[in-house]
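[retry 2/3] Tyrosinase copper-binding domain-containing protein: previous attempt timed out, resubmitting with same input.
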Amino acid sequence: MVNAIVSLAALALSALPALIEAAPAPGLGPAPWGPSFFGSPGKYPPCTEDRIKIRKDFDSMAPAERKAFTDAINCMMTKPSQLDQTLYPAATNRYMDYAVTHVNLTQQVHLSGFFLTWHRYYGHLFEQDLAEQCGYTGAFPYWNWPATADNLRGSAVFDGSEYSMSGDGIYVDDGPVVLSPFLQLPHGSGGGCVNTGPFAGLQTTMAPISIDNLIAGLPLPDTAFQLNQTCLTRDLNTYAAQRYCNYTALYEALDTDDLLTFDQLINGVIGGAELGLHSGAHFIVGSPASSIFVSVQDPIWWPLHAMLDNLYTSWQLRHPDLATAVYGTETANNAPPSANVTLDTPHPGWGYFDPNHYTIRDLISTTSGPFCYKYDVAL
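[retry 2/3] Tyrosinase copper-binding domain-containing protein: success.
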């Protein structure tokens, strides 16, 4: 199966000019870099122990907690879209508004200096929306990639029960997953429609968009937001899990003392023959989760990216002297050429979910600025 169209192997920042800024860390308390680090003292309430939220490993949550989370996502899919239907017919409900927003901003917030902090706040917005729209008050879960790598179908995440994130797709033998002339993966254990768990029967609304649009900075195709309904598919891939998302790869990324190297280890290298931790996780699941533009259509996107944020947060805590480092430009793959980001560069926004253009500085710590959360276990 030729799958270069949906390749996430290009999720690296290796081709971008580097700009590193770092501020010394006074310690590793609730706010590792101190409230005075942020540009607007008093703009946000302090993150105190009575306010802090704890994000949890999905597999460690009680079945009722897991079901409450997936029930809230399904609830979000019953809420009407707030987007202009003449421009975005693929936005069939509020959940798909998130997917459309991600497509609209993909060329700015991937392969760029915005990647880590933009996605951090995007997940935070969705967490808030689950509470406000659907009354979800539980933990925002992460999918622990290496902990499930040897038994995907047996994990709580993918066992297909009503307490999972749904299971694999129906098996369809359509050959290996070809990402480039230099990289292909063996076919996984699915490939077809997901028919178990809380997202059985889910209809996705957007077709994959070529990765070339991202790498070359090309405009989105005119058909990007046309309604293109099909069943949610998955192709759970043990090879990808064991090769790219193992504990050795995890600790190699956590131990590196350079943000550029960290980015390469989590995302791979453009045109390279290997994936990274984060890109590998997308290919554990298969299309549409492995399509960089439209991946949000699969609800596994949220626990997958909570794990990415956990990895980034853990790297920051392990390297307090580098915790405020930034790297990259303002456009994907620096196409078209753009300025290097700094801590005071404003993000391109998050659509109607939040029209504010927070700076990277605002979003650099999970216990300062608009955030007040940490993870149950430091990686």
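[retry 2/3] Tyrosinase copper-binding domain-containing protein: The longest strand covers residues 53-57.
[retry 2/3] clearing retry counter.
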